[in-house]
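Worked problem 6 (solution included).
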Amino acid sequence: MITSTPQTSHSHAVLLDEGELSSGKEVPISVVLPVYKSAACLEELYQRLTVVVSQLTENYELIFVEDGSPDSSWQQIRSLSTRDSRVRGVKLSRNFGQHAAISAGLKASRGRSVVVMDADLQDPPEEIPRLLALANQGTDIVLAKRRSRKFSRWRNVCATVYFKLLNSLAQSNIDGTCATFSVLSRPVVDAYLTLNDSSRHYLFILFWLGFERQSIEYEHGSRLHGESSYDFSKLVQHAMQGIYFQSNKLLELIVWLGLFIVFVGSLSTAALLVSSALALTPSWMALGAILFLLGGINLTALGLVGLYVGQTFEQVKGRPLYIVEQETNESAAPTSRQLIRRD
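Solution. The predicted structure is:
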């Protein structure tokens, strides 16, 4: 990956050509924003996005995907859509998760360049011109890398360890400092939507797709309202889904672990026979310890295999990744659309 030198000025952004465009299907810029528990941020987010994007082009769309949020996010999105026809709202029937919501937004988008960012204002809209300027040079994927993470120290340490483990298992080079904040070209969006994996991770899919990638660095903002919806259990589930998507190396490790246990078990059995013969150690104690160890390892291995089988079961069900319940300003969207989609 090539990392560009951070810029201090946003004035260098290239205005996108929109002379050949009308209010029809294609627009120069789409901004996709998955929304969950972000009602307090949406008005400020809209104001800042409008100021930034309108300086690049007047022909754009802001797509807010409400992912079953329990607060008033959808009411806020509907209000913004009433005030501004360039705001499009997509309401999912329930919470399908951030990455499914991103897929729904990408499916609805019409932009030649599509910006993906969080709706909690930790991704500053003012950085969009820098991302687009690099994309306009012909780069298909432009990623934003955090200079520092505005998360707890424990979460930062866990993220660092996780990405090192993941890259080791998958023999990949995924940069854990990259955020969801990014710009995709239309070919990348189209390629992204061909994947129907039930276990989805936005960044992992982008790295798997290939295409030319470059990145910029930016200062990750602090959360202004509310708190992250990712608790410990969701973070663990999210991490495991990333491993499922990237690698089956864990299954190979089980085989090697089994061979290692056979070797150690053979040595232990020999030692147990010698010890019993010399009456140094009661045989039942040593045998019990070995059986306890082997039982725990077997249960762990079976559980891991079960997780992969469970993922296969979820995949073969063929259920849609998300269900759209309502949309606003949908008349501006392509006409060949379905209520229930599988990307």
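Discussion: Strands lie at 2-3, 27-35, 60-66, 87-92, 111-116, 141-146, 178-185, 213-218, 322-327, 340-341.
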